[in-house]
Amino acid sequence: MQENLAIASVPVQDWGALFEAEEALRVGTVFQDLNKPFFAALDDEKNGFPRGCAASAMQQGGHCDGGAFSQRNSHCDGGASPQQQEREQMMEKIQAVSFVLDDVRLYLDTHPDDRQGLALLKEKLAQRKTLLLAYAQQFYPLTVDCMADLYEKDPSSECYCWQKGPMPWEGACV
């Protein structure tokens, strides 16, 4: 018996309508045409939970980000300070813009001459740099580039010291 190889057909993605950065992070793509939610997620919505979040996870005190369940830091619960709330809001903006950048960069891997994609990449790169610098000035640097920017503005600063704040993955309160 002779076996034949399968022939794959992959349609070329066209530039289309985009989600805002925060929504793109939540649904998992910046491109509205690529948002293909699983049918199981619809059951959660009927029960009053965000798409993609299991009801049991939500009942255990967690929350849903981008379709994935995560548990909030217990030491920050129960009324975060205004400074902590602002830090988290700024981090969410940075994460959303960074997500859009990653998605557009992947699109440009297969569409390197797409003017709309290149324009959006340029816009979001500038927006991310501005957000990272504002965060570094208010709290502490998140990247080496932030350290360099702060040092350039004030060479006497201690901007190059990671001990000025918790690492983003530590989830500590400010």
Short description:
The protein has helices at residues 21-27, 39-46, 55-59, 82-110, 115-138, 144-153; strands spanning 63-65, 68-70. With 174 residues, the chain is mainly alpha-helical.
Give a quick set of tags describing it.
174 residues, mainly alpha, two-stranded antiparallel ribbon
Order of helices and strands: HHHEEHHH
* Tally of DSSP β-strands: 2
User: What portion of residues is helical?
Assistant: 40-55%
Mean pLDDT across residues: 76
Strand order, largest beta sheet: 1-2
Largest sheet: 2 strands, antiparallel
Flag low-confidence runs: 52-76
Quaternary organisation of the protein chains: single chain
Tally of distinct domains: 2
Given the structure, what is the number of helices?
6
Kindly report how far apart the N and C termini lie: 67 Å
Q: Based on helices, strands and strand pairing, what is the structural class?
A: mainly alpha
- Gyration radius, rounded: 20 Å
Which outline best applies? elongated
- Strand proportion: under 5%
